[in-house]
Design a protein that fits this description.
This protein has about 130 residues and is of the alpha+beta class. The chain has one domain (about 1-130): Electron Transport, Fmn-binding Protein, Chain A (Pnp Oxidase, Chain A). The chain has three helices and eight strands; from the N terminus they run H-E-E-E-E-H-E-E-H-E-E. Strands 1, 2, 3, 4, 5, 6, 7 and 8 form an eight-stranded antiparallel beta sheet that branches. The protein is globular and about 45 Å long.
Length: about 130
């Protein structure tokens, strides 16, 4: 997981894909953290992405580096929003405190379960890593 997290943190903006019914939906996400051995993302329970992940937890993220190498990561979203996970997120990204608080009812965190990452490079090589 360290290699996956390092790639995500180095390149920051990931594109997270869900489905709404049978329509694909993709949007940028800027937050990722490791907490208790799991890879976490965050959202608001007021957003459509939250509702989509609750209806169908399968998702995929894609991210590209400045050199053109890219990563595709897929798995299932497991929501684990507690005071402990919220505090970890606020500690990881202090700017979050401008949007959320530890007791904020809309602040949600989820980790990836059964994650599979595929690293790809500009030469056409790829390799797969499981979380």
């Amino acid at each position: 997981m360290n290699e996956i997290l390092a790639f995500l943190l180095e390149n920051r903006i990931v594109y997270l894909a869900t489905v709404d019914g049978n329509i694909p939906k993709v949007r940028p996400f800027g937050f990722v953290m490791e907490f208790e051995g799991k890879l976490y993302f965050s959202t608001s329970n007021q957003k459509s992405v939250y509702k989509q992940l609750k209806a169908n937890p399968n998702f995929e993220v894609s991210i590209i580096s400045k050199t053109g190498d890219w990563l595709r990561l897929q798995g299932k979203a497991v929501f684990n929003t507690t005071r402990k996970t919220r505090q970890a997120a606020l500690d990881a990204v202090p700017a979050f405190s401008k949007m959320y608080s530890i007791d904020d009812a809309i602040f949600e965190l989820f980790y990836i379960e059964d994650g599979v990452a595929t690293f790809n490079d500009t030469k056409g090589s790829s390799r797969t890593v499981t979380l």
